[in-house]
Description:
Elements: H1 3-12, E1 34-43, H2 53-56, H3 76-95, E2 110-114, H4 119-132, E3 141-142, H5 164-174, H6 184-197, E4 209-212, E5 218-221, H7 223-240, H8 255-261, H9 263-271, H10 276-282, H11 284-294, E6 310-315, H12 317-327, E7 345-352, E8 358-366, H13 369-374, E9 385-389, E10 401-402, H14 403-411
Parallel strand pairs: 1-6, 2-3, 2-6
Antiparallel strand pairs: 1-7, 4-5, 7-8, 8-9, 8-10
Helix pairs in contact: 3-4, 7-9, 10-12, 11-14
Amino acid sequence: MQRRTIVLSLILAFTAAGAASPRPPAAPRAVGMRLEKIVTVSRHGVRSPTKAPEDLARFSDKPWPQWPVKPGLLTEHGERDVRLMGGWLRADYARRGLWSAAGCLPAGTIYSWGDGKDQRTRLSGQAMLDGAFPGCGLKAAFGAEGQTDPMFGAASSGACPIDADEARKAILERAGGDLNRLGPGYGAALAALQAIMHPGAPSPPEANSLGGGGEEGARLTGPLSDGSTLSENLLLEYAQGLPMDQVGWGRVGSEAGLAKVMPLHAQFSDLTRANPYIARHNGALVMRAVLAALDGKPGLPGQGASGGTWTAIAGHDTQLANLAGILGVDWTLTGQPDKTPPDATLVFELWRRPGGESMVKLALVYQTLDQLRGETPLDAAHPAGRVELAVPGCGGAGGGCGLEAFEALIAARLPPQCVAASASAKDPRRKVG
């Protein structure tokens, strides 16, 4: 990616042009087409920062706020927000003709698989089911607790190894050849973050650099990496509902204040996780599971042969960025300065024409920042945001892409050796915790 493109993407990321609208979906059913199933990949709900306040202290002039849970864990607030998203998906896809608006569905219709390594993904997978089908006794399945599931880290687990030299080359090319000349948008976001962390102090002189290792096969360190983490922490403080005098020590002010620093998170993700070379390796197993579910095959441990009506995958923002890189799609979100916020859900819809042809449509469904903060019930008056996506070279936004063409296009982008199965599932009848 050339430097000019990066600058433009940062500008567009926070404009309304082409952005999702929080209005209720219009004309949910395509004429002459029937919705057969959906496959979703979601980020977990609101969590605490992955580092303790004392570990973050070196970045700021004041102590970081205390959270009600240990670092990296889903909060009760976050869990409730995920339930609200689950309820919205149930109601929205009832309007689109996929299932009934109330009651339980037959056994085997719904299947959820989450990253067992982290509490936040295990609980989010269950919360999504509980919100969508309350009282139905559905249980989310997941890999071994605390252990790396190759599906959610194909590169770092060794299931789909990345060449470190190629990864570094891909990142540098995407940065336009210079990791420290990333355009005025980058500089403005760094300055805005510095004004929150250390008002009046000059920006630190550190430079961005590339090394080996990390989940992307190459480790990008420096102000961009640190800024990505810190800006996301500020957004999580806001989404968690902390008092505004604790959100960036009262220096953020509003969603607009967060929008000034979130380009750091977006750009770091774009250079690394959404980078096509890295994404096609690290996201290969998630993408293959999606393709299998669309095709009615058991792509996940313990999943029935038909794949059911809804296959729900509970992961991280890394998976959303990886899939964006594989698919070649991008999005901006009205009312949400983060491209991959908590609960954000990438939906793959399988539609069938009367003559039998199957079509795949894509959408990104999300809650606005204020919906997350306020635990806003999602309904026709307060709908979730939705943006329709189109895979380049395979149909238009909202128009869909033939299933066979979609499968062939995506399969050709994935490394052929990256087909290892996910880690063994726990019994899906067992409660998560």
